Target: Nuclease HARBI1
Amino acid sequence: MKTCFRYLGNPGYEQGIGQELGVSQATVSRIVDRVVNSIVAVSDECIKLPTTNHDLMEAKRIWRSMYKFPTAIGVIDCTHIGILKPNRHGYEYINR
Model:
């Protein structure tokens, strides 16, 4: 899975990622294919997003009131979202 997440997190040439991780390009391709297909196979059970207009508005309300993130309806764990650093204490906003 590390190989797949490396590829998905910063896609590049499979051959380059394979060299970085010590595997062939074909291995990277097979791993990515298997992991992504496994995720897709359970996606209906594991990935839940608002589907009605009412649920969308409620999700936005919650994210706006709790996190000051006005148009979010949910998050995906480990996804990096580019944000502008605030003028005050901008050094605290680093990629972790």
In short: The chain has a mean pLDDT of 83.
